[in-house]
Amino acid sequence: MNLIVTENYENMSRVAAMELMGKIVEGKEKRVNLSVTGGKTPVRMYEIIQEFLKDNKFENVHYYNFDEIPVKGGSGLTMDTLRRLFFQPCRIDEAQIDVFDEKNYMHYDKKLEEDGGIDMIMLGLGPDGHFCGNLSGTLNGFGEGCRAVSNHLNERIEKRLAFLSGGMDKMADYYVTFGPATVMGCKKIVMIVSGMEKAEILKKVLEGPICEEIPSSLLRLHPDFTVIADKDAVSLLGKK
Ligand code: PGA
């Protein structure tokens, strides 16, 4: 594992933007498949990338969302976020966006393989140690590929999803996510982490046992796993 520590959120965003841009530039020569994250951590990174992408087109780069929360009568929440934060401001062509959703998740590992695999997945760290939609308490071992997870597994998950969906009546029965085997099959994994509120969970992810309760602990077993974290997020590492 490679841990890059930055002074603050701004610098974390710059380093993460450089990682992403490094891969995007490879798209000048060949097809590059990137799976990217929504959430609040990458907001600044996408702003930085916007500047770089505004005068450059890298048409061989394909972008994949890695989870989706369907909403009854509406569009998926993850794609909505990615379009707002990244695809629209950076004017990414529709032909470069590969939509993963509740309709295609069953065949998606095969599709990813046919597309040549994901060259890099950039993800955030959830407060319970989740990566993508692999929340603590939802895993059935580490062997599953793209998967559907019931929105009714427990009260905490149900409440959270109802909130995100805009109410119980709009909430679908399940959401979909790249599973642990899908993510471990990506050629490179980059995790971005910022802030004191992530310090405790990052410590468990990097220094605790590798276990299903802390899903992201699994990522330590990947041969090309980089964590880009600011000083606050790493403040508990190496301490009792
Ligand atoms: P965040 O989300 O970037 O909004 O903290 C991370 C996650 O929940 O995967």
Walk me through the topology.
Blueprint: E1 2-6, H1 9-26, E2 32-36, H2 43-53, E3 61-65, E4 67-68, H3 77-87, E5 97-98, H4 108-114, E6 120-124, E7 147-150, H5 155-165, E8 174-177, H6 180-184, E9 189-193, H7 199-207, E10 225-230
The structure holds 2-phosphoglycolic acid.
Residues 39-41, 124-126 line the site of 2-phosphoglycolic acid.
Q: Can you walk me through this structure?
A:
The two termini are 21 Å apart. With 240 residues, this protein is α/β, with parallel strands linked by helices. The chain has a seven-stranded parallel β-sheet with strand order 1-10-9-6-2-3-5, with helices on one face. It has a three-stranded antiparallel β-sheet with strand order 4-8-7. Helix 1 (9-26) crosses helix 2. Helix content is 30%, strand content 18%. 2-phosphoglycolic acid binds at residues 39-41, 124-126.
